[in-house]
Amino acid sequence: VWRARPRTVVSAWRPERVCHVAEFAMGAAGSGAGRNRVGGAHEVVLVSTEILRVAGLTGFHTSVIVDDREFFFDREGIMAAPPLWSHIVGRAKSAGPNEGKTQMTPVGMSSNSGKALVEALMYFFEKGTYDIFYKNCNTFSDAALYFLAGQRLDPKYNRIERLITSTNPISTRILNRMFRAFVQHTTGTTVDADIYTTNPEAEGFSVEDVVASIDEAAESDSDDDTDDDDDGAQSDCSADSARSLCCHVTSNRRARESILLAARG
What we know:
By secondary structure, the chain is of the alpha+beta class. Helix content is 38%, strand content 18%. The chain has nine helices and six strands. A six-stranded antiparallel sheet has the order 1-5-4-3-2-6, with helices on both faces. α8 packs antiparallel against α9.
């Protein structure tokens, strides 16, 4: 287990509070999101905490630390916090003796800052779109690692989610039976309704679409650099903001534009 350097302890960031990224993103833009995003000035660390073990499988909560801020996704959207904040809260709520083990894994250095990460992903991971299986903290960490370092989240961290989603609706029916039986056993109350239902706001979401958008932004950034070097080249768009509108119209246009704007920040 890699131990954080002193500057990444929880008290390293002032003020010590959690804020929504809409507040965090205010200010100067971050670094670009081009292909050469690895090897920059921003330290990236993946943080993982075991939150449950069932049928030989381990469930994890993950987040990403960029420099001295932690970024994670929950029902409120993308959140910025002091390092390890979400994991400390999770450990405090943990009841099992084997739960709550937190590991910090260094990813490397990135040319993209925390602000660039927020600006690129905030429209993909909006408030109210969280789903415990289809769009959760691990989904965000997967996309964040790819944006920051061109790496994907180790499959061990989202194995349970992949198992559930690949066997739905059978898996969710079994889960709801287990949940209802557990509630009845522990409280004596009979529960007829399903405890878990898929969040309709998460339906159709795919982290692969986010990854594709990041690649698209990198390609666009690379093409723009080539055009700048060509004395005879002329852009079809008069400005960066216009380019993101007229050159990248997609079914998820606003989210893709956010990546393009962060790439040109």
